[in-house]
Amino acid sequence: SENTLCPSPGARSRALAKEIPQEEGEGxxxxxxxxxxxxxxxxxxxVALYAVATPFVTPAxxxxxxxFVPATAAQIQNVLxxxxxxxGSLVDIGSGDGRIVIAAAKKGFQAVGYELNxxxxxxxxxxxxxxxxxxxxxxxxxxxxxxxxxxxxxxVVFGVPQMMPQLEKKLEKELECNARIIACRFPFPxxxxxxxxxxxxxxxxxxxxxxxxxxxxxxxxxxxxxxx
Length: 228
Prior knowledge:
Elements: H1 2-5, H2 9-57, H3 73-82, E1 89-93, H4 99-106, E2 110-115, H5 118-130, E3 137-141, E4 154-158, H6 164-174, E5 180-184, E6 195-197, E7 204-208, H7 209-212
Parallel strand pairs: 1-2, 1-4, 2-3, 4-5
Antiparallel strand pairs: 5-7, 6-7
């Protein structure tokens, strides 16, 4: 009969009421899943940004801040000019992305860079490999105040004014008299440069430690004995 085949309006309402919460529950579950995915994605991005940014930000929180400012092409050429007729090992203190170390290696130096930022050190190693001088270069992740530079004959420094007095004392204590120190952007406060080249931010000062320290090489003169 019609009564058994067609449900009453009340029955239809009750059935519809049962279906609606179920549909809403499924939609809420999907929205919840998307919310979790978005939260996880944002969280992962923030963690990645923190990992990349921390090495750049942390040095600024130190007592002496040594920020990363890439050397200009003119600065590199001025440094190389100060290295003419020099040989032996070379170290770049605060080597950044490695461009000074790589340029020196191309001139035949066994060049080493010390840099606190691990991302810059890894990038420097890649650049050295790309330019074919990886066998003549080394890059270390290290704090310059915890490293001895006693076995280097050529030292390049890209410093800031706050660190130069302390670094001057450290180098004077550690280096041999035949060492040459090349300062970029800012000179040392007490030493008198032996050579200067460049202008403005590209100025480079070279200090021969035997003059700055007052070392003197004394040669013995042998006079032949005269017959009486």
